[in-house]
Design goal:
alpha/beta; 2 domains; three-stranded antiparallel β-sheet; binds pyridoxal-5'-phosphate
Length: 469
C-alpha cells in the first residue's frame, strides 16, 4: 500500500540464530562473574545485544552467495576487481587500498601524514581515529558546531563542522595540518549527520588553504539518507547521486565496512594522490597484505562488494533510520531522558539525568547499563566517565556526559525485539531511584572500559542500612 504508516522490514528471514532465554538469576550470576563489566560477558548470556552496530549486522542471501564466489588468488583476484568496482561506483577515488578494518586504514594513513607537531581537525574524531593520530605524536582536534555538544539541542545536522573554527585553525597553523577530516555520520557525537552544504563549505575552506579533505565515511549511506530527507532541495535525488556528490568533494577516505559495508569485517583507505598512495601501500604490505587483498580474504571482498550495492537501497535506509527512531520515539514518550535528535545507528540514554542520585564518579552510565542487562538481558554500552574519565596523568574527572548507547545492528532484530527492549528500559527507568553506583576495583592504564572490573556500591543507603547488593 502506497503511503502506509507502517514501515516494514524490507526482507524476510532466511536463516535464524537462536537466542537463549535466560533468567534474572542467571544474569545476576553472569554479570557478577564478569566483574560487572558487560564486555566480559559470554555473548550467549545476552538476549538482545545492542553493544555495537559494528560488524554485527546480518548479511543478505546475495552476500552469502557472493562469499561462495570468493577467489583466494594471492594477487589480482577477481574478487578484488569486484570489490574495487563496487567501491568506485560510489567513491570514484583513484587508489583504493583494502584493509581488515577501518582502524587499519587510519593507522596506515596517520603513520604517513601524522607525527609530532601535526594537528588533524575533524568534526569529532572517533576513538580509534584519535588514538591512531595521538600514537604518532600528532594532535587530534574536534571542531563540531556548538549544538553538536549539547545533548538536548535540536538541529537537523548536529554533526556539522564549525567552519569558522576550521578557518581560524588553518589561518594560524596551516603548516601543521596535513589533512582535514569530516566523520559522516558523526559517531562519537551520537551518529549525527553532516549536511551537504556543510561539506561544500568545508571543501571551500580546504581549497582556499590548499589542504586535502578526507572523510571518515563509515556511515555514508545513513548520512546520505538524512541529507535526502532533511536538507532542502535534496528529496528528489537518489542516495547514489548524493553519495557521489559527497565523494566528489573528497581527496581521500577511510572506511569501516563493518558499518555501511553491511559486512562483518573489512575496510579501506582511498586516496587520489599518487605519492601518498604509494607510501600507504608500502605500509600496507608490512602489516596487512598485498595491495589486492589488504587484510581480507577474497570472500570478504565479495561480501563487501555486494553489501555496498545493498546499502544505498532506499527501502533499506528508510527502514534502517525509522527503526532506530522507533526505539527513540517510544522511550521519549515514556519520559526516558535521551540525546536528541536521534542519530542513525543508535539511541543514547542520558544516565546522568535519569540517575541524579549517582554522582559521575560512581558511574551512572555503568549502573544503568548493568541494570538493563540484569533486568532483561539487554547489553548496551556505557559512554561516559568509565570510558573517558581517566586521564593520561592518572587523574580522574567526570566525562562531559554519562550516556548508555543502544546501538542497532543492521537487519538483525525485529520490531518485537525492540518492543521488548523498550519494555525493559521502561521498567528500569521506573525504579531508577533504587539503582546504585559502582567503584572500579581493577583497571588497565588505558582504554579501561574494555577490561575494568567493578564492585557495586552499598545499597539501601536511603534507609541508612549499608547492606551490599
Ligand atoms: C567503527 C569506526 C571506525 C573504526 O573502524 P573499525 O572497523 O572498527 O576499525 C572509525 N571511525 C568511525 C566513525 C567508526 O564508527
Amino acid at each position: 500500500m502506497d503511503g502506509a504508516r507502517t514501515i516494514i522490514e524490507p526482507f524476510r528471514i532466511h536463516a535464524v540464530e537462536p537466542i537463549r532465554i535466560s533468567t534474572r538469576q542467571e544474569r545476576e550470576a553472569a554479570i557478577e562473574a564478569a566483574g560487572w563489566n558487560l564486555f566480559n560477558l559470554h555473548a550467549d548470556d545476552v538476549l538482545i545485544d545492542l553493544l555495537t552496530d559494528s560488524g554485527t549486522g546480518a548479511m543478505s542471501r546475495d552476500q552469502w552467495a557472493a562469499i561462495q564466489r570468493g577467489d583466494e588468488s594471492y594477487a589480482g583476484s577477481p574478487s578484488w576487481f569486484e570489490f574495487l568496482g563496487s567501491v568506485q561506483a560510489l567513491w570514484p577515488l583513484k587508489h583504493v587500498i583494502p584493509t581488515h578494518q577501518g582502524r587499519a586504514a587510519e593507522k596506515i594513513l596517520f603513520s604517513v601524514v601524522g607525527g609530532p607537531g601535526k594537528a588533524i581537525p575533524n568534526n569529532t574524531h572517533f576513538d580509534t581515529t584519535r588514538a591512531n593520530i595521538e600514537y604518532t605524536g600528532a594532535e587530534a582536534i574536534d571542531l563540531v558546531i556548538a549544538e553538536g555538544k549539547d545533548p538536548a539541542a535540536l538541529h537537523p545536522f548536529k554533526g556539522n563542522m564549525d567552519v569558522p573554527a576550521l578557518e581560524r585553525l588553518l589561518a594560524e597553523r596551516r603548516a601543521d595540518v596535513p589533512v582535514v577530516f569530516v566523520t559522516i555520520t558523526n559517531n562519537s557525537g551520537g551518529g549525527q549527520p553532516v549536511s551537504l552544504a556543510n561539506l561544500h563549505a568545508v571543501r571551500e575552506v580546504c581549497d582556499r588553504f590548499d589542504v586535502p579533505l578526507f572523510f571518515d565515511a563509515c556511515r555514508f549511506a545513513e548520512n546520505a539518507w538524512f541529507i535526502k530527507v532533511r536538507e532542502p532541495g535534496q528529496a528528489h535525488r537518489s542516495i547514489t547521486e548524493i553519495v557521489r556528490e559527497i565523494a566528489s568533494l573528497a581527496d581521500g577516505m577511510t572506511m569501516s565496512a563493518k558499518k555501511d559495508g553491511l559486512a562483518n569485517i573489512g575496510g579501506w583507505l582511498a586516496v587520489n594522490d599518487d605519492r601518498l598512495a604509494e607510501q600507504c601501500r608500502n605500509l600496507l604490505i608490512l602489516t596487512e597484505g598485498f595491495p589486492t587483498y589488504g587484510g581480507l580474504a577474497g570472500r570478504d571482498l565479495e561480501a563487501i562488494a555486494q553489501g555496498l550495492r545493498e546499502v544505498v537501497n532506499e527501502d533499506y535506509l528508510r527502514y534502517r533510520i525509522r527503526s532506530t527512531a522507533y526505539l527513540g520515539d517510544a522511550l521519549d514518550a515514556a519520559g526516558v531522558p535521551l540525546v536528541k535528535p536521534f542519530g542513525g545507528h543508535a539511541i543514547y540514554l542520558d544516565a546522568r539525568r535519569l540517575l541524579p542520585h549517582i554522582s559521575p564518579l560512581e558511574y551512572p552510565g555503568q549502573a544503568l547499563a548493568v541494570a538493563l542487562y540484569v533486568e532483561g538481558g539487554i547489553r548496551g554500552c556505557e559512554i561516559g566517565t568509565v570510558m573517558f574519565g581517566r586521564h593520561p596523568d592518572g587523574s580522574e574527572s567526570p566525562a562531559s556526559m554519562d550516556l548508555v548507547r543502544l546501538a542497532i545492528p543492521r537487519r538483525t532484530y525485529t520490531q518485537s525485539h525492540i518492543d521488548y527492549a523498550i519494555e525493559v528500559v521502561q521498567v528500569v527507568a521506573a525504579r531508577s531511584d533504587e539503582l546504585r553506583g559502582f567503584r572500579i576495583v581493577d583497571e588497565p592504564p588505558a582504554l579501561r572500559h574494555f577490561t575494568a572490573r567493578f564492585e557495586p556500591l552499598a545499597s539501601g543507603l536511603r534507609d541508612g542500612v549499608a547492606t551490599r547488593n
